[in-house]
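Weekly sync, protein design subgroup
Attendees: M.S., D.O., the rotation student, P.L. (late)

Item 1: inverse folding check
M.S. brought a backbone from last month's batch and wanted to see whether the design step gives back something sensible before we order anything. D.O. pointed out we never logged the input encoding, so this time it goes straight into the notes. Structure tokens as presented (250 positions):
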């Protein structure tokens, strides 16, 4: 019975010593989000460098090669938050453990070299990349909207200009060598001129005073529009008896 107690105590001491020996890590390598690594050996800071990492698109590549000067050693590779590991290549035995918000690689080495290669990406980088793509899409939609709106405005302005522009009448000579004015297209008339012209198409003749009552515009404005329609060759004034009538020009 006494012998069993001693054996149990020795076994317990051995387990504790092994645990302490393993927990005292010979190499601690800390990988940061920006690709920087810090190396600590036997609790002494050695160096920090960016030379062991490179980035292509959204993927990072870690390629560490160190001289350990020890036959047997333990190591910890502390990884940044939100890391997504694609692959790990090393001939060392290791395990991945969760330590709060970080993942860690812990293991044992049995040679004078410590080599490990790892491809990974940071989820934060992916979110930033997606955010940039979303911004580009929004800018493209806004640009397309502005482009289409500009085209519609130009078409509207051009159409309005065509309707309101003053058309110079085309002068030709008839068989008697007299100059005549050709009619212009009614699509170039203003809304007011179209109103006057439509009334005249329904009436055989009408006086300016009667036309003024129907349209309800000032006399000066009506006279100006009538003059424009005369110049465009669409209407004419004709005196019948003592009254001046406005008629459609045939």
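Designed sequence read out in the meeting:
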């Amino acid at each position: 019975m006494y012998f069993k107690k001693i054996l149990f105590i020795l076994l317990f001491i051995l387990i504790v010593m092994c645990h302490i020996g393993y927990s005292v890590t010979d190499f601690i390598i800390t990988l940061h989000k920006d690709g920087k690594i810090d190396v600590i050996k036997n609790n002494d800071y050695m160096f920090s460098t960016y030379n062991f990492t490179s980035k292509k698109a959204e993927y990072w590549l870690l390629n560490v090669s160190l001289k350990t000067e020890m036959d047997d050693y333990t190591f910890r590779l502390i990884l940044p938050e939100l890391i997504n590991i694609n692959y790990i290549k090393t001939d060392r035995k290791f395990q991945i453990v969760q330590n709060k918000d970080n993942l860690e690689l812990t293991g044992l080495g049995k040679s004078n070299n410590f080599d490990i290669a790892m491809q990974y990406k940071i989820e934060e980088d992916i979110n930033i990349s997606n955010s940039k793509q979303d911004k580009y899409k929004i800018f493209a939609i806004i640009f397309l909207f502005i482009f289409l709106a500009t085209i519609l405005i130009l078409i509207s302005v051009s159409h309005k200009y065509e309707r309101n522009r003053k058309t110079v009448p085309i002068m030709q000579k008839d068989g008697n060598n007299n100059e005549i004015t050709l009619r212009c297209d009614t699509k170039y008339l203003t809304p007011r001129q179209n109103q006057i012209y439509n009334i005249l198409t329904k009436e055989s003749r009408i006086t300016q005073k009667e036309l003024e009552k129907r349209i309800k515009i000032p006399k000066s404005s009506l006279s100006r529009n009538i003059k424009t329609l005369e110049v465009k060759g669409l209407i004419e004034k004709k005196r019948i008896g003592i009254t001046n009538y406005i008629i459609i020009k045939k």
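Discussion: The longest strand covers residues 113-122. Residues 16-23, 166-172 have pLDDT under 50 and may be disordered.
Action: P.L. to compare against the previous round before Friday.
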